[in-house]
């Protein structure tokens, strides 16, 4: 069977098995069985429902891993909650499985090809669980691939470097001193502190060359007694930056703004960083090689420049946990409409053949 027919067949099976993060049992069983039949050494139930396959070449060489995510999203359709592959992880897994099968059929000439099917990308937990399980300890090169919305890439186009941004949440608790509304001088009003914090956060500036933002997304203070000075407030900030260094700068400045603005009115504040996802950091040589693979499959007109996208991806925890890892991440066009995470998300399945062939070419260049 040719690559295009095989990847559509694999996709159609996976598309019928939408499962939420860490519940990808049937998806994992199908992928593990495909890898085993192709001749891979397979370990499953890694970090929950993860599947890892290894194929060895006859000579020493790099360990090249290709990672695809497996989970679907929960949507409410006609009043019923249902899992749907609205981010296209069924497509990503189908392309990686089909590439893995085709490589096994012809064999490697050196090194190791490692296939990583990762659970729970949408909840940003899966990569960390695989890292804890040692999934990338022996890996030198790690490659990712994802379908992109039509605004970023059309059918017949792909970028070798999809740059996701960093994101983080800071939760803050401000404590003041309660008092009677008639005697405000005996208390410390946390609403005064919170208002000062909002102004201080909105006055934060970082390098304008790098897209970044910080804003207050939650403010809760005061109780049912409208004639009392409130002594406890809760705030949350949402932070975004396209570079990890700028995110570090934002986190330091935002934390400082919360604490010092609260102190300006006599309140105290504690902050907690929650949900920090790093930005993409790729290897330029690997991006170049992936660009060559894209050009050979899609022609020079199909090769897109690097794309900056504001969304996050837990793929970048791998690089964060192992800085010498060389990574790149292919963003594949497929005329995805109306958008990723939309319950009616659809795309042109011709993209599956293109994505599989790009991965095949890239592995050819690295291990054959
Ligand atoms: Zn998604
Ligand atoms: Zn996704």
Automatic annotation (TrEMBL):
Coiled coil: none annotated. This is Putative hydrolase YxeP. The keyword Cell membrane does not apply. InterPro entries: Amidohydrolase, Bact_exopeptidase_dim_dom, Peptidase_M20, Peptidase_M20_dimer. Its EC number is 3.-.-.-. The keyword Disulfide bond does not apply. Signal peptide: none annotated.
């Amino acid at each position: 069977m040719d690559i295009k027919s095989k990847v559509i067949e694999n996709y159609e099976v996976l598309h019928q098995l939408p499962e939420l993060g860490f519940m990808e049992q049937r998806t994992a069983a199908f992928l593990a069985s495909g890898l085993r039949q192709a001749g891979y050494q397979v370990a499953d139930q890694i970090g929950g429902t993860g599947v890892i396959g290894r194929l060895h070449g006859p000579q020493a060489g790099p360990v090249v891993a290709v990672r695809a995510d497996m989970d679907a999203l929960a949507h409410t359709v006609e009043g019923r909650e249902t899992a749907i592959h609205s981010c296209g992880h069924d497509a990503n897994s189908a392309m990686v499985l089909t590439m893995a099968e085709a490589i096994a059929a012809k064999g490697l000439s050196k090194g190791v090809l490692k296939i990583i099917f990762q659970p729970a990308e949408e909840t940003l937990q899966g990569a960390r669980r695989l890292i804890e399980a040692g999934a990338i300890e022996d890996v030198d090169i790690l490659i990712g691939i994802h379908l992109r919305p039509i605004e970023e890439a059309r059918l017949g186009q792909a970028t070798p470097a999809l740059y996701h941004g960093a994101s983080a949440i800071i939760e803050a608790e401000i404590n003041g001193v309660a008092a009677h509304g008639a005697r405000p001088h005996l208390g410390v009003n946390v609403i005064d502190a919170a208002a000062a914090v909002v102004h201080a956060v909105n006055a934060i500036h970082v390098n304008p060359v790098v897209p970044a933002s910080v804003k207050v997304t939650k403010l809760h203070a005061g109780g049912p007694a409208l004639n009392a000075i409130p002594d406890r407030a809760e705030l949350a900030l949402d932070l975004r930056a396209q570079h990890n260094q700028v995110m570090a700068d934002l986190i330091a400045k935002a934390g400082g703004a919360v604490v010092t603005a609260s102190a300006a009115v006599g309140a105290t504040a504690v902050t907690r960083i929650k949900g920090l996802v790093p930005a993409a950091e790729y290897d330029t040589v690997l991006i170049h090689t992936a660009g060559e693979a894209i050009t050979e499959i899609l022609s020079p007109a199909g090769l897109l420049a690097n794309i900056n996208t504001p969304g996050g991806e837990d793929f970048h925890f791998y690089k964060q946990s192992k800085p010498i890892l060389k990574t790149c991440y292919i963003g594949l066009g497929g005329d995805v409409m109306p958008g990723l995470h939309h319950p009616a998300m659809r795309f042109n399945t011709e993209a599956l053949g293109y994505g599989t062939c790009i991965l095949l070419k890239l592995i050819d260049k690295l291990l054959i």
